Amino acid sequence: MKRIQFNNYGDASKMYLGEYELAQLKPNDVQVRVKAAAVNPLDWKQRRGDLKLFMNKKFPKGIGNDFSGIVEAIGSNVQNIKVGDEVFGTMDVKHPGAFAEKLITNSKYVTKKPINISHADASCLPIAAAVAWAALFIKGNVTQNSRVLINGCMGAVGSIAVQLAKEKGAWIAGTCSKKDIEEARKNGVNEVYEFTENNYWKKTQPFDVVFDTAGLMQQRIGFSMLKSNGKFIDINPTPMSMLKGLFIAKYKFTFATAAMKHLSDFANLAEKGILKAKIGKETNISKAIEILTEIENGNGAKGRTVIIF
Question: Which letter, b or e, does each residue of 219-243 get, where b requires 16 or more Cβ atoms within 10 Å of its Cβ?
Answer without folding.
Answer: bebbbebbeeebbbbbbebeeeeee
